Amino acid sequence: MMMEERRITHTERILLLLAETHCLTLSELQQKTQINRKTLLVYLHRMMKRKLISSRWVAVDGKRERLYCLEVKV
After folding, report:
1. Average pLDDT of 20-38?
2. Domain with 39 in it: what CATH number?
3. Running DSSP on this structure, what letter comes out for residue 27?
């Protein structure tokens, strides 16, 4: 029985990256996933709504940026 190849979804790609590093800024996520910025923001918002990730503001090189982190449930 042959298995069908399945592409990784944007959500899975984001979760895999966050599982490795725990937290990434929006620009880091955009660079590593190669997902369009507006599309990435939509997916991140949906994931926050489902409580898979959380976000907070951080200062990076004097600029404020969003930091997205994987929610750890025990």
Report:
1. 94
2. 1.10.10.10
3. H
